[in-house]
Amino acid sequence: MLTAGNLKEYLNEIEEALKNDFQRRTLDTFAVAYRTGRANAFAGMDVPSLVQEIARAKDASLSRLDELYREFKKRAEAMGVKVHLAKDSMEANELIADIARENSCRNIVKAKSMTAEEIHLNTHLEKQGLRVVETDLGEWIIQLRKEPPSHMVLPAIHLSRYQVADLFEGVTSKKQDTDVHKLVKVARRELRKEFVQADMGITGANFAIAGTGTLGMVTNEGNGRLVTTLPRVHVALVGLEKLTPRLKDALRLLKALPRNATGQQITSYVSWITGPSECLSTPDKKKIMHVIFLDNGRRKLVRDRNFSQVLRCIRCGACANVCPVYRLVGGHKYGYVYIGAIGLVMTYFFHGRDKARLLVQNCVNCGACREVCAAGIDLPRLIKDIHARILDEEGHPPRSKLLGMVMKNRSLFHTLLKNMRFAQLPFADRQARYIRHLPAVFMKGQDFRKLPVLASRPFRDQWEDIKPRVVKPRTKVALFSGCAVDFIYPEQMAAAVRVISKGRGTALEHPRSQTCCGLPALMMGEKETAREVARQNLKAMDPEEFDHIVTLCASCASHFKHSYPKLLEKDRDLEQKVRTFTGRIIDFSSYVQDVMRLSPMLLEHSGAKVGYHSPCHLCRGLEVRQAPRRNISLAHEYVPTDEEEVCCGFGGSYSLSFPVVSRTLLAKKMASLQAGRISTVATDCPGCVLQIRGGMAQAGRDIKVRHVAELLAEQLKD
Ligand code: SF4
Ligand code: SF4
Description:
By secondary structure, the chain is an alpha/beta fold. It has 4 domains: 110 residues, no CATH class; 191 residues, 3-Layer(aba) Sandwich (Rossmann fold), CATH 3.40.50.10420; 146 residues, Up-down Bundle (Glutathione S-transferase Yfyf (Class Pi), Chain A, domain 2), CATH 1.20.1050; 115 residues, Rossmann fold (3-Layer(aba) Sandwich). The chain is built from 36 helices and 20 strands. The strands form 5 sheets. It has a 6-stranded parallel sheet, sandwiched between helices. Helix 20 packs parallel to helix 27 and helix 28 packs antiparallel against helix 29. The longest helix has 21 residues. It binds iron/sulfur cluster (2 copies). One iron/sulfur cluster binds next to helix 15, helix 18 and helix 19.
């Protein structure tokens, strides 16, 4: 579990986690297999529509939680179930301990329940002298190790069979075979004894159907059925957000849950419990059944317009499965009780700011979690919003305050950038265009890649010299360069200008008062700065004046499209303008393929083998996948490589704050590219160029790294 109190300690913990080769190999293997398994499980289904339906239905249920609770209570109590509402963890823990005491229970068996983890139920019950045994295999293993789950669905995924065999040796006092099937048999034998002697069973529930007072449970091991049937007392602890009006709502969730969680069409056991079952050891021959609904901040969260979507979560764990950072560091360093992207957000609401502060900074903003979420939760945005909220509550650090102040003043910001090129002169290898060395204080942890020098002349200062003159324009295009292209790689935009100019009658403009898109500010939690620069860019690039606004930076484009409407939602006077603006934004590759329809006749084919790195904000942010690959194929031989859509680890300021993670993600990316036997790798984002090119240069690899615009421009016939 995360114990770090500050960023330095957290980075040390991450460094330690990265040394765990077994965990990294396991999570890698799982992540790759999961991708295929999920795709197969959903084959033939309209997944986006299903996700939308789930989001809509969940929102509708959440808007009437109290009503659903009352209905459930009425139905369930009519059947003899006692239904409670616990306002917080303490109340839920005490209620359960009281139920155990009232019914003279001593031995408790438990099925897996994240809600029970949320309130640290076992610790509380054990302090009351009760004996609690987890019966889900993974949960039992981690209980024996006295550690929290490292995944919401696969709690012991971080452990090898050798570790488990050692553990079981301690339990049985016998040497254990490391064969997985034999280990499962050991667990079964040991746990059977517990089921038989237990007088109370505790479970969670995946669904609570208000209309019938029914609980629904989805498990893979069958232990849930034993927990709910063998002991004479059954207590179900259920988050209020699990309430749903009817069975058909639960069945809809069931379509997505196993498929998204583990790539299974259906889990092994789906159990429905409507009222107490028969029980020969109670006076009225009926099981004693209690359902405790947990609030713990949920009813307040429902009223939060921005964050209420968190409660749509169906705990499938998919957002961890696809997260490149989780895949490296594992759940104990990527969550508190709840793990993965949703864990980063929930930790703040259920376990407090102190536990969330470091976690929310450890997101590279790759968008993989949003793409896979069964409930359509905009996880990356919520993670950034929590970060901003924590800074607002605790005060912004001087570094980000200064950045915010400078970025809001465009001319100061650009003057500083221009002047920095003089400051870098003593440290620069101008021929190779890399920083040779920097004082140690700046280079700490950054030596995994070479850093580029600033260009001697930014694109904005070159524009008047290279601007194509068009007499009778048919299309007007604004070029948005973004800071990296403008001040580090102006040649990328110059290349784009050469390509786009091949479109007849296309007039290009580079509006001079454009400024940073604002994403770096948002990543640092400076939401107000991000909002202010958004307003400035809207003014600089009036969408009414252009047919298209083309950018070479996938991150800027995705930020324009997705963040601007949210950032400026309170600027009612800008509503229409924002809509038009986001509609005009287009990435370079899509512009070339879909608007210009660049003819291969205009290009020489090089025959060079070119791989592709798909920037996160292009493939997931804008859902642009084919256009760049088609562009490469126009002039070169495109060679697919492994995991093209997995993050390269740049993430802007993320790579400065979390260099250990950035370095490792980059190493994996470079290994995949090298395995492809390519001479060049193309990408559509200057940030990815910086990261991969710097990594290749530092490692002495001879794979060239180019923007797609450059690869096309170089092959243009005169
Ligand atoms: S955006 Fe990417 S890095 Fe951040 S939590 Fe989601 S998957 Fe993980
Ligand atoms: S946030 Fe989405 S992907 Fe993550 S566990 Fe919840 S439903 Fe699944």
